[in-house]
Write a structure and sequence with these properties.
Elements (H helix, E strand, L loop, with lengths): L12 E2 L3 E6 L6 E8 L3 E6 L8 E8 L6 E13 L3 E11 L3
Antiparallel strand pairs: 1-3, 2-3, 2-5, 3-4, 4-7, 5-6, 6-7
Organism: Methylomicrobium album BG8
Protein name: PilZ domain-containing protein
GO molecular function: cyclic-di-GMP binding
Amino acid sequence: MPDPNEQRHHARLTSGGEIAVKLAGSTEQLVGHCKTISGAGVSFVLPEALPPGKAARIHVVKSPLGPPVTAFIEIVRCIPLTGRGFEIAAAIKSIKGC
């Protein structure tokens, strides 16, 4: 049963898949772990911090949710994790191929 207090427009799905991230204007690709993904956003863990407001391309490589997904995002938040990198939240701006 849906939570009546939930204000999100899109359900979040736990991915657990590998994610590749490439910042706009960069040739470097970072690889991390996708935590959750929805129609509007994504959260993932990377070994390096990403600056909020920066645009990037993501590719969720391996996911139990379905086929690979490529999307263009804007970094919203970057929080350091104790000894394990950074948790990053981003808004999905468009999905490649859609």
